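Example 3.2
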Amino acid sequence: MSLHLGIELDGEGTHPEAWRRAAHTPDRLLTGRTVADRVAAAENAGFTFASFGDSLLPPGADGGPAGRIDAVNRAAFVAATTSTIGLVPVVGTTYAEPFHTSSQLATLDYASRGRGGWIAARDTDPRVARALGRSEVTAPADLAREDRDAIAVVRDLWDSWDDDAVIRDYATGRFVDRDRLHYIDFRGEAYSVKGPAIVPRPPQGQLVVFGVDGQTDPSQVDVVLVFGATPGDIADAAGRAKDRGAALVFAELDVALGAATPAPPSGRLSFAGEATGLVELLRAMDSHVDGVRLHPAVVDEDLPVLARYVIPALLRAGVAHRPVPGSTLRSTLGLDRPANRFRAERLAESSR
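Structure, written as tokens:
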């Protein structure tokens, strides 16, 4: 087995003072050039995917960067300038409209030629609701319901177009076969969605959906992100997620390389030290998880070391997996292309 490696590229890094050690002036953080350069460096290094954190809180209110551009927009911006790396933004499930989430992510998958993913994360801070002028969702059961329903609706909307629904018959002026579009007819406790989607089925059929351990039902997602203070804790969490139906399990890992000061505790496994030590840690984790998402303390300091030393060492040892051009994120992760649910149901009915 070989590890799939992801890297979080939100802001300057997880350390509160990472901005002081950035390789650019503060006014360059929110520029497209900075995002594109970092994603290009991650792709050239051989990372499987780059993720983009997000929050609806005012700048700096969540302890993150003092400003940020919407995660889906950042991922879409670099889609055309990359060729192998997966692009995985965070989009909340608590207050975001799932119809819009479905459309945004399907568009990202088209822009990236099948390299899109989605980290489905709960919005647990009541300030998010106030920023949107929405009623707060705080009860655990209600947060779980919103998470479950949002993922179900987004997935059903991706399936609401058959793969061959777009026909582009210029002679007759018919571009879509309406018989190959489907109502999803979702009715939940808080809202209902009729469908179908306004964007054709994504190139991957379904984007790769990442869920957070302890928040998302593992059977609803493709990858579960697990936490733990020690490698043993990670192994235990991964085992539990697999038992509950997780297809793939990725560990969350904070990284501060060289003499860098590690970020404050986050609940994730943390490594601080030299590149050789990180290589040994990742090699030891290979038998417990399918991948690791790295959270650098200072992006502009840690990413070059990861690219120059860590990933090449893992590739030589046969531990890391390097994406190949033309692959979708699903195929890179070894996930099958899912069948269209509505088409499968119709075929089943016609065979009776």
